């Protein structure tokens, strides 16, 4: 990171509609995060979007008057050469694949859930081989770079990188913790900077074990407020089915929006079925949102991130991404919740597994802050998801059908091995073109 005039950042999946978030974050921090070059990389199928988003990015930096050179390319290797940070935000199979991830399980009365559910398994099977290829390119072309992954299923992807690549400088990132903190501050009507949440768990399975306002615990108050259906605290992509107050008190930890899929499975299933019939699955809703966003992005007069982007579930993730890069670069030592190697921070999760936990961010990366352990009543679910992630990652790497069946069956949203097999078989077939490890026979 030294000796050059500024940093080189590479964003894989640069044509994503989220990219203006990143650009805005980099512009905001330019004074302390001198980026010389930003390379937006995409694949041939994403060429048009890359062009549109890339041109908006160029207008944004020009308007802000910051000298960041934006490069658009379909050549990943060319982009990666000597990068300092690589961010990944791609979707293998695009939104059409997400639609299948969400829709097929519903036919069997199972929630698809594109991250920690059956949909997440198939998304992982498509994504992990690609991310591992990117890891190999990083080792060859920019071995000192930090890889910051937002690609879902972010927990499973981080787990796969830790277990199946030789990359160690990797951080998985999500906007759920930042979203929870923002919503708590909003609910209490206070500045975000006065709120501190002790986050611990896994990606999309993270709890606020405690929450403080000016250093004083206000967990009970927050749990009480969350019991009010108007304060249900959710994200744009998750139905805000109301929490039961007694359950929240008993849980004694702040759940994230995704916990609804596991603690309110029947109500969430009913809601997903209703939504898929009335307005389409989330993939279809997002397709429409994206169409509108790209129309806006095309406008030559637009040179800021449009507020409409906040309709996406991943809104504000740039704050998380840019703060993280900034803190690593400046060795800031602040606390951020990220996905990293547990290293004993949460006692009941394997030492070498990825966890989402508050970390001190240094130039050597995130240093997880030990929480002791999760409350006994949430350990089971958290460990089920961890076992699911590890097994799914093994299936993705090996292309082993039986491993994939195992992963599908042990997912807490799937009721039996019989249903698991039906869902898996239909989904493998539906995603055939993006699952070469399951279908291409190896030549002897
Ligand atoms: C949340 C999650 C992200 C996910 C996003 C989906 O913010 O934290 O991991 O990608 O929602 O949002 P979308 O608008 O695509 O449904």
UniProtKB/TrEMBL annotation:
Domain of life according to the entry: Bacteria
InterPro entries for this protein: GlycHydrolase_4_CS, Glyco_hydro_4, Glyco_hydro_4_C, Lactate_DH/Glyco_Ohase_4_C, NAD(P)-bd_dom_sf
Binding note for cofactor: Binds 1 NAD(+) per subunit.
Keyword entries, A-Z: Glycosidase, Hydrolase, Manganese, Metal-binding, NAD
Cofactor: NAD(+)
Alphabetical list of SUPFAM superfamilies matching this protein: LDH C-terminal domain-like, NAD(P)-binding Rossmann-fold domains
Pfam families: Glyco_hydro_4, Glyco_hydro_4C
The Glycosyl hydrolase family 4 C-terminal domain, residue ranges: 199-414
Entry's family note: Belongs to the glycosyl hydrolase 4 family.
PANTHER family named among the record's database cross-references: 6-PHOSPHO-BETA-GLUCOSIDASE, 6-PHOSPHO-BETA-GLUCOSIDASE-RELATED
Protein name in the entry: 6-phospho-beta-glucosidase
Organism classification: Bacteria, Bacillati, Bacillota, Bacilli, Bacillales
């Amino acid at each position: 990171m030294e000796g050059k005039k500024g940093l080189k950042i590479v964003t894989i999946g640069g044509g994503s509609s989220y990219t203006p978030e990143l650009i805005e974050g980099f512009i905001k921090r330019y004074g302390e995060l001198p980026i010389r070059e930003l390379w937006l990389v995409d694949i041939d199928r994403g060429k048009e979007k890359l062009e549109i988003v890339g041109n908006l990015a160029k207008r944004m930096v020009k308007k802000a008057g910051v000298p960041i050179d934006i490069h658009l390319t379909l050549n990943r290797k060319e982009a990666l050469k000597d990068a300092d940070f690589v961010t990944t935000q791609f979707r293998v199979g695009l939104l059409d694949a997400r639609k299948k991830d969400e829709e097929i399980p519903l036919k069997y009365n199972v929630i698809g859930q594109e991250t920690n559910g059956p949909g997440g398994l198939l998304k992982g099977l498509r994504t992990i081989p690609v991310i591992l290829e990117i890891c190999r390119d990083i080792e060859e072309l920019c071995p000192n770079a930090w890889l910051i992954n937002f690609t879902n299923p972010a927990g499973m992807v981080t787990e796969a990188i830790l277990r199946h690549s030789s990359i160690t400088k990797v951080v998985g990132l999500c906007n759920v913790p930042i979203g929870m903190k923002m919503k708590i501050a909003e609910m209490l009507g206070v500045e975000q900077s006065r709120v501190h949440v002790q986050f611990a768990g896994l990606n999309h399975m993270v709890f606020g074990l405690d929450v403080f306002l000016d250093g004083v615990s206000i967990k009970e108050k927050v749990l009480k407020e969350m019991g009010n259906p108007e304060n249900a605290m959710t994200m744009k992509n998750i139905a805000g089915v109301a929490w039961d107050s007694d359950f929240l008190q008993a849980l004694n930890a702040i759940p994230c929006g995704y916990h609804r899929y596991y603690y309110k499975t029947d109500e969430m299933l009913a809601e997903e079925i209703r939504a898929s019939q009335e307005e389409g699955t989330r993939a279809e809703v997002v397709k429409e949102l994206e169409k509108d966003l790209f129309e806006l992005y095309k406008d030559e007069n637009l040179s800021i991130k449009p507020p409409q982007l906040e309709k996406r579930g991943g809104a504000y993730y740039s704050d998380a991404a840019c703060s993280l890069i900034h803190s690593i670069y400046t060795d800031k030592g602040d606390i951020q919740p990220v996905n990293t190697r547990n290293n004993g921070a949460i006692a009941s999760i394997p030492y070498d597994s990825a966890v989402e936990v508050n970390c001190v961010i240094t130039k050597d990366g995130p240093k997880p802050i030990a929480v002791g352990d999760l409350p006994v009543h949430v350990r089971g679910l958290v460990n089920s998801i961890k076992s699911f992630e590890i097994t799914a990652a093994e299936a993705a790497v090996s292309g082993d059908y039986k491993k994939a069946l195992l992963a599908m069956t042990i997912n807490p949203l799937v009721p039996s091995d019989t249903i698991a097999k039906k869902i898996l078989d239909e989904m493998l077939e539906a995603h055939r073109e993006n699952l070469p490890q399951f279908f291409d026979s190896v030549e002897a």
